[in-house]
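Table S2 (continued). Query chain:
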Amino acid sequence: MGLGGIFKFFLRRALELFVIAAFLTLIPNLPPYAEFSKPINVAPAKPFTGKLSLNNKLDNVQIWHKGDLTGPEAFDDLNGELYTSLYSGDIVKLTGEHITPVVKFGKPCKGSYEESICGRPLGLEFDQNGVLYAIDAYYGLFKVDVKTGSKQQLISPSTKIAGRPIKLFNSLTLSSNADIYWTDSSNFTLEDGVFSFLSDGSGRLIHYDSKTKKNQVLIDNLHFANGLALSDNEEFIIVADTLTSSIHRYYLKGPKKGTQDIFIDGLPGLPDNIKADGKGGFLVPLVMSRDAQHPFLLQSIGPFPFIRKAIARFMGLAQLIFQKIDQYYPNDFCMKAVHNIGHFDAFPSGLKPKRVTLLRINKNGEITDSAHTFKGISGISEMHVFKDTLYLGSPFNDYIGKISLEKLGWGDLKKGESAKAATPTVAPKVTTTTPKPTTTTTTPRPTTTTTPKPTTTTPKPTTTTTPKPATTTTPKPTTTTPKPTTTTTPKPATTTTPKPTTTTPKPTTTTAKPTTTTTTPKPTTTTPKPTTTSKPSTTTKTTSAPPTKPVAQATPPPKQTTPQGQADRKSVPQKETSTPQNKRE
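Corresponding output:
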């Protein structure tokens, strides 16, 4: 066969494929049942220059819980403990190496190919009261008590919004007034995600009013609506349009209220879960990469509805055949085939570029920094800042990636204790001993704070304003006020003064909350007579009773023993020190 014969052979095969494609596209009422009428145009990927320049910042990502977890995709934290959602349909709590199941929305199932039965939580977030809001791709939107595991369904899959059923619950975020913004990705379920990429856009950004319990569509016809996040002042919300490598913005306040625009496009990959970075910007992971040399296949055929429809019809018919076989001869092989044909997991790995890219984007839609790698990790769907570490999740991996923020060069994102559901720092009597009460510039009377004669504390106002008050606060780091009359913080919970009663600007009102601070064994020190405070030794002997809700101080004073029960404080993040043998209960 000469060159001409080879050419004729391939030409005939091409014509045959064209006839088959025409047959598949022109015959009505064939699966999948969707629209393929509009071209999908995607902006070219931005070049790797400036803030987007390639680097190796992610080369040293630590692999954590390898083999213990499948598909840890989304994260949030509460009281020093990290929570994540899994492919198995569970939400678990991670305390060091210890894994504790919290809640499951689905039912027992055989394996991942029964994903629609297992359930698949894709997004989660705690409110300020420690209530967990979670969204499951198949079962809907829930609120969860993580202490008891009890759950309440807020939106079910049977709900119709603007005349359309909900097919793919994807991501959520909470506003300050407890409203919920969430995404319905497309007219297909997660098992048929590839069909979402082939058909016309049908994803939606939706607002759930917590008072009226009603849903309102804010943006429609997105090409797989995905992660979302509110701006720091809640002026606008952004949502990932995954297939088009872009992010849309919808204005909630201001002169542009009710309008939308493109926040950023031309991303060198497909954006997934988005999170506010706590600094006015956003963290955007690219779950799949693309660039000029490595285009994303489904984007390349986007402008050609005919080709997209032919491919979708071919896949849909193949899926239908296996469904019919399983219907009459139930077997796991056919069930797995039905699951894999349209699922993202079955997308050929060879068509996925190896590069992993994470972005920081400011409130103006500008890339301010990026981190890359070509080894070690893949398919990152979410970035979560927890204490001084960045945690990386993925629906495809069996591990969690993590890297120090300092090593990454993102130390400004470091967080202290979680503000969510944190117990107020009430430690009424953490310290009651003052090593040198005489160093308080001979003003023991203000420390009694119960003297009816405020003039007794004013004989030496100049001495109280001298630099020595700094020495009075050395054993009490939490209270360093200039005037000795206010040497303690307004909250009696700190009780850093020798006496349990807190001092207010007016001494006559210093015993505002005696109940919150247990009285010392010698209440005579709080008698109106200022002479009772002339014995500083009594303050060194008094030890306070254990507080009802002890919380550790930021910097423990010298010569101080921590009260019992200190370890139970909710406001202090727990260290990840659980033993490995307790994995997966």
